[in-house]
Description:
- The chain has helices at 6-32, 37-53, 57-85.
- The protein has 98 residues and is an all-alpha fold.
- It has one domain.
- It starts with 5 loop residues before the first helix and ends in a 13-residue tail after the last helix.
Amino acid sequence: MSVNFTGVISGVAMIILTGIFHPVVVKCEYYFSARVWPVFLVLGLISCVVSLLATNEAVSSVAGILGAILLWCIRELKEQEKRVKKGWFPENPSRKDA
């Protein structure tokens, strides 16, 4: 009987990556506005392609999770913009469009 760690690795990766990208979205909206979304789109699509082409299950799984999180960040950028307008998060006063 062999042990398969792919599920555990995927779960840990999901928690870590979600924890990393939450503040990344907040900082990106603060410094660049939600207009930075194409960067997340390109990186997300690249990660999804890597996931499809990877031969290792763990690498494929983690790349797929990363791709999904990066694509989800696009929505979160828009939501973060709304949270800033509601006053829940600070607005960057030095940003040109502020």
